[in-house]
Amino acid sequence: MSFAAAMVIAMAIDAAIGWPAAVHTRIGHPVTWLGALITALDRSLNHAEHADIRRRALGLMAAVFTITLAGAAGWALQSVAPEGWGGAVLIGILAWPLIAVRAMHQHVRAVAVPLSRGDVATARAAVAMIVGRDPATLDAAGIARAATESLAENTGDGIVAPLFWGLVAGLPGIAAYKAINTLDSMIGYRTPRHDAFGWAAARIDDLANWIPARLTALLFAVASAAPRRAMLCVLSDARHHRSPNAGWPEAAMAGALNVRLSGPRVYADRQTQDPWVNAAAPDPGADTLTEALALYRRVMIGIAAILVLTAAGSGW
User: Fold this and answer.
1) Gap between the Cα atoms of 45 and 67, Å rounded
2) What is the pLDDT of residues 104-116, one digit of tens each?
3) Residue 79 and residue 246: Cα distance in Å, rounded?
4) Angle at which helices 247-257 and 227-237 pack, to 10 degrees?
5) CB-based contacts of 114: which residues, under 8 Å, 6+ apart?
6) Neighbours of 99 (CB within 10 A)
7) What distance in Å separates the CA atoms of residue 211 and residue 167, rounded to the nearest whole number?
8) HSE (CB half, 13 Å, CA atoms) of 173?
9) What is the C-alpha separation between 63 and 41, in angstroms, rounded?
10) d(CA 113, CA 123)
11) Stretch 30-34: mean pLDDT, rounded?
12) Half-sphere exposure of 248 (CA within 13 A, CB side)
């Protein structure tokens, strides 16, 4: 069975219809199911009175349990899939909700459209849906920067990474990756509650995204109008990012569009002084988001073409 064919089917379905609201209302979404499990484990195992070493151990157990359960569910479903095209289609349908091609585009477009009209308030409300920083502190450039960074980073961990692990290991791979990513997004933060308990989740996520983040940077560079500038920015600035992975697609995006990203930002509970990525470039604006979305679409087409060629090379 060609996992490449299954992944391109999943990608095509999501690009065409996303995850319909009617379906979400009726059955929710696999990420919400994982989220409910992680929340239950966090509440039952993560207690402030425990020593940090115990919280780390329990956090590791929670992460391993969640990832194993997701992978096992994927394996069980994949094991009953028929051989050939029937199996590829079934796995593609089951993998479909684990890829966010359409949702990512819609979320960023919801910021770009009002920002292009000068409607900063609406754009600020839209960007608050996809970033964790305090939206009240963001001017037009800050809104554009936050949305561009989100598009770059989430292309990696919301699309490239699940497709990569689905290509490597089929439905168990993509399901296990989605568990890893959801764990990191919920408990992988350096807060008093999760610094110890979420340590393992954050480290596992770093490992799972190491290759996909670098692939994403390469894809952004190759699909851009300035591949050399994009790659030079990656080589000079990616390693300075607070994340060992997010800096790669962000630096590629910054170089490709010739804007500066990252830098100081304000969250609800703290302010950070992160270094700039592509510091000498101008601030992004509404037109940057339009260009970023066009680059994103080219990357999606490129990924689909790679998957089709891979599937054809393996005899479908």
Assistant:
1) 17
2) 999 999 999 999 9
3) 34
4) 140
5) 120, 122, 123, 126
6) 28
7) 13
8) 19
9) 9
10) 8
11) 96
12) 19
pLDDT tens across 241-288, in order? 888 999 999 999 999 999 999 987 766 656 777 899 999 999 999 999
Per DSSP, the residues of 267-299 read: BSS-EE-PPEESTTSPPP-HHHHHHHHHHHHHH
The string of DSSP codes covering 79-96 is: HTSPSTHHHHHHHHHHHG
Q: How far apart are CA 152 and CA 260, in angstroms?
A: 13
User: Alpha-carbon distance 170 to 172, whole Å?
Assistant: 6
Q: Which two tokens stand for residue 236?
A: 């000079």
Lookup: tokens for 76 = 């069980």
Rounded Cα distance, 123 and 112, in Å: 7
Compute how many other C-beta atoms are within 10 angstroms of the C-beta atom of residue 279: 14
User: What residue has token string 């510091």?
Assistant: 279
Give, to the nearest 10 degrees, the angle between helix 30-45 and helix 52-79: 150
Around Cβ 226, how many Cβ atoms within 10 Å? Answer: 14
Please state the pTM of the whole predicted model: 0.95
* Sequence letter at residue 59: G
| pLDDT tens sequence across 176-219 | 999 999 999 999 998 999 999 999 999 999 999 999 999 999 99
Which one-letter amino acid corresponds to residue 51?
A: A
Instruction: For the chain, state the CA radius of gyration.
Output: 20
Domain ranges of the chain: 3-313
